[in-house]
Amino acid sequence: MQDSLKDKAVRGVGWSFIDNIASSGITFLVGLILARLLTPEEYGVMAMIAVFIAVSNSIIDSGFSNALIRKVHIKRIDYNTVFYFNIVVSVFLYISLFVASPAISIFLKEPILINIMRIIGLILIINALSIIPRTVFVRNINFKTQTKVSLISSIGSGFVGISMALAGMGVWSLVGQQLSRQLLNTSFLWMFCKWHPNLEFSLKSFNELFGFGSKLLLSGLINTIYQNIYYIIIGRFYASSLLGQYTRAEQFNTIFSTNLTTVVQRVSYPVLSSIQEEPERLREAYRKVIRTTMLISFACMLGLAAVAKPLILILIGVKWLPAVYFLQIICFAGMLYPLHAINLNILQVKGRSDLFLKLEMIKKFIAVGPIVVGIYCGIEYMLWGSVFTSFIAYFLNSYYSARLIDYPTMDQLKDILPTFLTSFIVAFFMWCISLLDWSVYLLLPLQLFLGILLIAFIYEKVKLPEYIELKQLAVSLLKQK
């Protein structure tokens, strides 16, 4: 059983990693092309409505997907109940957005938002149709199929977006890209999924799943609003071009922090859930996940901060230069995202969605301060405030998770401190090179070469357990190929 679980985890990590890196890589490359063709103002307009779409998607899911993944014995009627709930709620929310779009447009001072919201809002219904097929694949730790679907969706939607931008359609090319990606994704998930709905609905099943999922719903709403509130604040109180700069910085950050977090969440949650009744095994697996994940996170995020300027200038041009400083700040908060996700996964695995909700409320209350400061003092102060709250959030998350599996915060810090110090020192030397008055086309390769050389040399010498674990994982994946 243990070997089987380990094999599933290795395959899951491998395919989930390929899924996120490949699909996000394609989306990122498409974004680079679009950034050359479009203006910061057009990106800013799209960012303004992100919070409305994100919040609506959280309501549609309502924590049911996590409840289904966690449930040990699943029945067909459970899937059918959630499926029809998702559809009904998505239609209701789309109609609400359609009606509210004029008021939102007035608030954000962008008349074009009316038509954009009414078109992009269709994503809510399309996404609702994909929730159960995706949950079935995640529950079975089948990320190979999801990888294929993501690649098809990313390539197809990229072609749509670039074609529309070249045709001079401006911000509508971003609408076309997002809409087509979700449509392709949902269509192919249904094509490959063996599950199909029946006309049945169970109040008993609904109440059971919602009892767990409702707290995750509230937690998810709070977190989603917080993650996207910057778009609203910047869009409302600053120029749309400045919001566009922040959006591009966030998208560079997403390549590493968000994708790594997604991989960890998608794989660790079903795997840890399957051993939730074995305390020793659960704690050891949890510890390994933290150590190996944070080795990657620290190296990627601190390295990204070090090379931010030459990277942005080379890839999208000088018109996006203000995004450099935004990205460097965001990286310090983003490096902890996977750690937040892992600690919060334990609360879900242990069925403590009540603690999950309590934590989200406390953390977001603390986060209000930096947002208010940002309104009056500037975006930079708001972003540095988010770094501060990210560290506070870690101590809160780890405190509660530690009580459930006997893995104290101090033990966690001892486990990840060597990788943090190593990555910080290496990133510092990489950043020093960027101070040289050389061509960015020479600086970036030199920074990357030095960073890879230094970090590989240090880890080969000290032989950290997490480094060895990653090498073994890489070898296992290569052997499978």
List keywords for this structure.
single chain; 481 residues; mainly alpha; 20 helices
As a percent range, the share of helical residues equals over 70%
- The chain-level structural class is mainly alpha
Kindly provide the radius of gyration, computed on alpha-carbon positions and rounded to a whole number of angstroms. 22 Å
Low-pLDDT windows of residues: none
Order of helices and strands: HHHHHHHHHHHHHHHHHHHH
What would you call the shape?
globular
Beginning-to-end CA distance, first to last residue: 23 Å
Strand content: under 5%
- Figure out the total of helices: 20
- Average pLDDT confidence is 81
Strand runs, count: 0
Q: What profile does the largest beta sheet have?
A: none
Task: Please give a quick description of this structure.
With 481 residues, this protein is mainly alpha-helical. It has helices spanning 2-37, 40-48, 50-61, 64-70, 76-108, 113-120, 122-139, 143-166, 171-192, 203-237, 240-274, 279-306, 308-315, 323-334, 337-349, 353-377, 379-405, 409-434, 440-462, 465-480.
Task: Describe this structure as you would to a colleague.
This protein is mainly alpha-helical. It contains 20 helices and no strands. The model has no long low-confidence stretch (mean pLDDT 81). It is a multi-pass membrane protein.
Q: Any chance you could write out the topology, listing elements then pairs?
A:
Elements: H1 2-37, H2 40-48, H3 50-61, H4 64-70, H5 76-108, H6 113-120, H7 122-139, H8 143-166, H9 171-192, H10 203-237, H11 240-274, H12 279-306, H13 308-315, H14 323-334, H15 337-349, H16 353-377, H17 379-405, H18 409-434, H19 440-462, H20 465-480
